[in-house]
Design goal:
Elements lengths: L1 E2 L15 H6 L1 H7 L5 H21 L1 E6 L4 H4 L5 E3 L1 H10 L4 E5 L2 H10 L4 E3 L15 H10 L5 E4 L4 H4 L4 E3 L4 H12 L3 E5 L2 H8 L5 E4 L12 H10 L4 E4 L5 H5 L3 E2 L2 H11 L3 E5 L2 H9 L5 E3 L13 H10 L3 E2 L3 H16 L20 E3 L1
Parallel strand pairs: 2-3, 2-4, 4-5, 6-7, 6-8, 8-9, 9-15, 10-11, 10-12, 12-13
Antiparallel strand pairs: 1-14
Bound molecules: iron/sulfur cluster.
């Protein structure tokens, strides 16, 4: 739920690229200069300096998702990473205010884990095709249809859906969570919702039968196996890294599949000469800023929801204390329990890689 301020704010002042601003932001410039032009920087740097000043004044932190543009991710993000990593940081932080530079379900997750903090989202309309693909009523119907099967829900869901859930998962731990839930509930099948492709990709890694929903990420579903094969033909030395929200056929022709954190780690540790990240465009930009020795080939898809967050509306969020995200307290307790159950599991011994070799023979998914 949102408390949307009705007062129309005054016009935002024009901030100047002064020598002081240049000095204050020079370290950030060094990081982003491969992805931001000098002309863009003259407009962005004053706003970055002002946002960072406001954060100190308001005792606020900014949680910036991997899909934020580099000037937000590297310029004003206090904590950066995937949605789960950000939620964990929100819990650890002693800040009074959290500004979620990400989409709405992420802000809700921060709120359910940090009920005493004020959580703001710069644009209340920043949604997600996966989160909007399923409702709490849908989950209740699925549970009626498959009694006894535990419900594992991807974190990319609303708080009301999480509240109907036994445990949450991310793309980094989905296989581990599914196997844990099957054992804990004594069930040979697990409901894994709402991402159809993540469910199919997980099913190839486990003997647990998966019951899935037809939700999709509108960014990752657009990649095709023929896109990847064309790329590999054009750039034979490039390593192709795909996200598990992509269709299984895309994973089959990629070199590596992992969560955003696993892809970042792959580039940082293996330092490939050429790489293609089959995911959202800003993710590749942000990794590229810190991997100057790697050449990034750029077929990517933009997430229109993530791109609704800008430096300008992050500034407005801090200045005008808007838009506050609230979650019904009773529902929040249930949603938090599902997220916390996942957080309390020991980290996977090895990060999920979705290698298809292990279980190429086994794909057992019932689509609802
Ligand atoms: S990238 Fe996909 S999963 Fe992430 S917010 Fe955008 S639509 Fe949702």
């Amino acid at each position: 739920m949102l408390n949307v301020a009705t007062k129309v704010p005054p016009v935002r002042p024009a901030f100047l690229f002064t020598p002081q601003v240049e000095a204050e932001t020079s370290a950030i410039w060094q990081t982003v200069r491969s992805r931001v032009t000098p002309l863009e920087w003259r407009l962005q740097a004053p706003l970055i300096a002002e946002i960072n000043r406001l954060k100190r004044e308001k005792k606020a932190v900014i949680l910036a998702h991997n899909y934020m543009t580099p000037e937000i991710f590297h310029g004003v993000g206090d904590y950066v990473g995937d949605s789960l990593g950000l939620a964990r940081e929100a819990q650890r932080s002693d800040a009074a205010v959290i500004v979620q530079a990400g989409v709405h379900f992420m802000a809700e997750t921060s709120k359910v884990l940090c009920p005493d903090k004020r959580v703001l989202i710069p644009d209340p309309n920043a949604g997600c095709s996966l989160a909007s693909s399923i409702t709490a009523a849908d989950v209740r119907l699925i549970k009626q249809r498959y009694p006894g099967a535990p419900v594992v829900t991807y974190v990319n869901t609303t708080a009301e859906v999480k509240a109907e859930t036994d445990i949450c998962c991310t793309s980094a731990n989905a296989v581990q969570v599914v196997e844990w839930a099957a054992k804990e509930w004594g069930s040979d099948r697990v409901i894994l919702i709402p991402d159809e492709f993540l469910a199919k990709n997980v099913a190839r890694q486990t003997d647990v039968k998966i019951i899935a929903w037809r939700g999709r990420c509108e960014v990752h579903e657009r990649f095709t196996a023929s896109d990847i094969l064309e790329l590999r033909a054009a750039y034979p030395d490039a390593q192709v890294l795909a996200h598990p929200e992509c269709p299984p056929e895309v994973l089959e022709v990629s070199h590596f599949t992992g969560s955003t954190a696993a892809m970042t780690d792959y580039v940082a540790t293996r330092k490939p000469k050429q790489v293609v990240l089959i995911t959202e465009c800003s993710m590749a930009d942000n990794v590229a800023c810190e991997a100057p020795e790697t050449e990034f080939i750029r077929p990517c898809n933009l997430c229109p929801h993530m791109k609704m967050i800008t430096l300008e509306n992050v500034y407005d969020a801090l200045l005008y204390d808007r838009y506050e995200v609230t979650v019904d307290p009773v529902l929040a307790v249930r949603a938090a329990a599902a997220v916390q159950r996942m957080i309390d599991l020991p980290p996977p011994a090895v990060p999920a890689r979705y290698d298809l070799v292990k279980a190429r023979h086994h794909v057992d998914v019932e689509l609802i």
